[in-house]
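Training component of the fellowship. As part of building independent skills, the fellow (R.M.) carried out the full modelling exercise for a liganded target. The chosen ligand was pyridoxal-5'-phosphate. The inputs are recorded below so that the supervisory panel can assess the work.
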Amino acid sequence: MFDDFITFVRQWYGTDDAISLHEPRFTGREREYVLDAIDSTFVSSVGAYVDRFEQELAAYLGARRAVAVVNGTSALQVALQLAGVESGDEVLMQPLTFIATANAVVYNGAHPVFLDVERETLGLNPDAVGAFLEKHAEKRKGGVFNRTTGRRIAAVLPMHTFGHPCRMDELVEIGNEYGISVIEDAAEALGSQYKGHHTGTLGTMGVLSFNGNKIMTSGGGGAIVTNDEKLADRAKHLTTTAKIPHRWEFAHDEVGYNFRMPNLNAALACAQLEKVPDFLQEKRSLAAAYKSFFDAVDWADFVEEPAGCNSNYWLNAVVLRDSALRDELLAKTNDAGVLTRPAWRLMHQLDMFRDAFCGPLENAEWLAERIINMPSSVKLGGSTDEK
Ligand SMILES: *Cc1c(COP(=O)(O)O)cnc(C)c1O
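Fellow's submitted model of the complex:
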């Protein structure tokens, strides 16, 4: 029953070798820029490629500023801190996400509150956030508090799952109504658009990742994106040890971090960013091919971009019609060297978050039993490769 699927993927990639979920492609000016960084001797915490990458990334996204950092997790950590998340606060987020989203909340001494996702977007459901706040939130001096736990609710942290945008208008509207910042975990969603705007630019701040498995990579890396110049300056300061600029004095005005993206990584990032439009085109053509394949089968539904959105289709996914098929599909495809994977274990089911405050999580639990991710790399020798 899954043989046709295996054959389909093999034909698309034109190989009998193992096919991974997502691997990087270096078909642009990666070598040139990385060697240039080495020749310049600026490979570490200072260098021209960092500034250049920040400018080019902001321009690409249509955002005022981007601050490059060592990885997406640290970008999340710092963005939450700058949004005013403090020790003992709560952050509203979805349980269907990669562990980094929840970890970044804990790094700030805060508590994740898990609220449900939508079946259409796979992302945080604005209706669930609204219902939670309606039921539990109380406006007091100093902010909005969870009446049951007594904790302040400091931020909303939606994640654009596999690159599919959440319903951001509604989330931002709820945030504004209650005076709570919305920070986007757009780690998976570089190049995705919501109503014509890039994901990562819709909340107070957005966070990107350039890990090796993302749509573009800097080896390891991340960015904080914002239209707020003050927040961007704060992000830069905090991620570069909070040093007071001076020609020879070393003085720091708060406890900062060494989270700056090294110039060597930024060189790779600059070359990869040039290829993102090509990557997006390739990924959309693969998504279209998967879509027509799954339109013709009766055991799974392909996850399409939400209405009004352009998804980067970072990781293609299907939702199985019968969850009992999951393990058989995983075994058959992985045995055949066509890598597939289920969704992450839900955050509230992990040991360290078992006592977390949760809303109803029917959709997250329903999806987690049925989601399968499929090979999604850009094809080598694809139509846009430079020959
Ligand atoms: C990849 C990812 C991150 C950040 O990961 P890093 O490896 O630290 O760059 C954060 N959130 C989500 C949802 C991710 O997929």
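The panel noted the following from the submitted structure. The longest strand covers residues 65-69. The chain has a mean pLDDT of 96.
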